[in-house]
Specification:
Layout: E1 2-6, E2 9-12, E3 17-24, E4 32-38, E5 45-50, E6 57-59, E7 68-73, E8 78-83, E9 92-99, E10 101-102, E11 107-108, E12 120-121, E13 125-130
Parallel strand pairs: 2-13
Antiparallel strand pairs: 1-3, 3-8, 4-5, 4-9, 5-6, 7-8, 9-12, 9-13, 10-11
């Protein structure tokens, strides 16, 4: 399993970034995909999850509602995190992960974030938002 996040960088408050995650080595369209973040000195937190079909997404962090969206392209084995109106408190290393609740034909996202649902992680990408 390989997950490679990219697209991070330095942006001013109010700006936008689009993170990408390239997946390989597993049946991408069976698994839910999540974006997580970890700020210095803080625990890793869930941001958003999207189910295996891309039909449903679940927010794990209320502060990003209305600003962040998750999407996926199963034909390209890619998942994206569009981040708008960025705030300094969004500064963190962002990770993508594969997993979710397995079903007969695909995986879904829990209503609450449980790290153990996501056994496969990629390297993170740094997002820094300046004020």
């Amino acid at each position: 399993v390989q997950l490679q996040a990219s697209g991070g960088g330095l942006v001013q408050a109010g700006g936008s970034l689009r993170l990408s995650c390239a997946a390989s080595g597993f049946t991408f369209d069976y698994f839910a995909m999540g974006w997580f973040r970890q700020a210095p000195g803080k625990e890793r937190e869930g941001v958003l999850c999207i189910d295996s079909e891309g039909g449903s997404s679940t927010y794990y962090t209320n502060s990003v509602k209305g600003r962040f969206t998750i999407s996926r392209d199963n034909a390209k084995n890619m998942v994206y995190l569009q981040m708008n109106n960025l705030r300094p408190e969004d500064t963190a290393v962002y990770y993508c992960a594969a997993g979710g609740l397995p079903g007969q034909y695909g995986s879904s996202c829990r209503m609450e974030m449980i790290l153990d649902d996501f056994p496969s992680w990629g390297q993170g990408t740094q997002v820094t938002v300046s004020s």
